[in-house]
Design goal:
Helices cover 52% and strands 11% of the residues. It is an alpha/beta fold. The radius of gyration is 21 Å and the shape is globular.
């Protein structure tokens, strides 16, 4: 079993997910969030808490985008406990057999890196060519009665999840945000820091309480600024290649229209109304593109939920691209 060290906060998230899986017996859950938010760590910590409720726990990564037939073949061999089992080529039969196993036993399946089967440079939730069969899997797991749970961990939400959520109480999605302030402070306290609590709060907000970003910043403060948060904030340019690379991975998955919206928001330097964006860009599909960007966590609402803007670090990244 894989254990998670230095896990901070997330008590409410763990309790909610545990309730959905153990008590409510949800069949399909999408655990969603931006890169670096700690989705995988949360899923592994959750597994530590609830694995005794299942006969078998299986974790698979979709990092290299395995075809569904390959994934199902691997799962069926494990669940049948027979490496030499005869598995039909027909994808529908493979899915049906998996559902039979999920019905006769209580299994927990963790599928990580779900965004890898989704199409980049399109609005959020579209499947890559050749991976459309994954929708059949999610639909069957969500709609067919069984006693197991599939937890999909992804930066992006497949469209079928929303459709299933609207029609059954056994399918849910959970969008994780940054750590709460106290949990975020623990990252810095563990590494040793000096400075006022207010400056530390300022720093945490600057990096949206993103655990990955905060760990990078905490190491830098320790190594280059003697543990002083104040010195870092007063002297640093906030530029970190690791953080920019994380943002760039998500930016490169955007459609052309989404990128154009990001450029407009960065150029404006202030929150804009949707009508103001339409005036600047004057293209069809602005509303759908904004929904997609919001779902990816790259755009946030402000000023009474009517204006849109970019997080400060994201804005610096986009402005740097504009200046090239």
């Amino acid at each position: 079993m894989h254990y998670v060290s230095h896990f901070f906060g997330r008590t409410q998230e763990l309790n909610t997910l545990q309730q959905w899986i153990v008590q409510d017996k949800c069949r399909l859950i999408a655990l969603l969030g931006m890169g670096g938010m700690g989705k995988t760590s949360l899923a592994l910590k959750l597994k530590e808490h609830i694995h005794d409720n299942f006969e078998y726990v299986i974790r698979r990564s979709l990092k290299n985008a395995p075809p569904l037939s390959e994934l199902l073949g691997s799962l069926l061999k494990i669940l049948s406990k027979d490496e030499n089992i005869d598995i039909p080529d027909n994808i529908n039969i493979r899915i049906a057999r998996l559902i039979n196993y999920l019905s006769s036993h209580r299994y927990l399946l963790l599928l990580d890196d779900g965004e890898e089967i989704l199409q980049p440079r399109e609005l959020i939730g579209q499947y890559r060519q050749g991976f459309e069969d994954y929708e059949k899997l999610f639909r069957q797991v969500g709609e067919r009665p069984h006693q197991s749970c599939l937890l999909l961990i992804s930066r992006e939400k497949p469209k079928i999840i929303q459709s299933l959520e609207d029609n059954t109480r056994c399918v849910k999605s959970f969008q994780i945000q940054g750590l709460d302030e106290e949990a975020a402070k623990e990252i810095f306290k563990m590494k040793g820091f000096s400075g006022s609590e207010s400056r530390l709060t300022e720093l945490i907000k600057l990096y949206q309480s993103n655990p990955f970003k905060l760990n990078i910043v905490a190491r830098t403060i320790q190594e280059l600024f003697g543990g002083s948060v104040t010195n870092f904030l007063d002297q640093a340019t906030l530029d970190f290649n690791d953080i920019y690379n994380l943002i760039d991975t998500q930016f490169q998955r955007l459609s052309d229209l989404e990128k154009e919206i990001m450029y407009s928001l960065a150029s404006a330097g202030q929150p804009l109304l949707l009508t103001e964006l339409r005036q600047q860009i004057n293209k069809k599909g602005i509303t759908d593109a904004m929904k997609s960007l919001t779902g990816r966590g790259l755009v946030e609402k402000t000023e009474g939920e009517t204006h849109f803007t970019l997080q400060r670090i994201v804005m610096k990244y986009v402005n740097r691209k504009l200046s090239r």
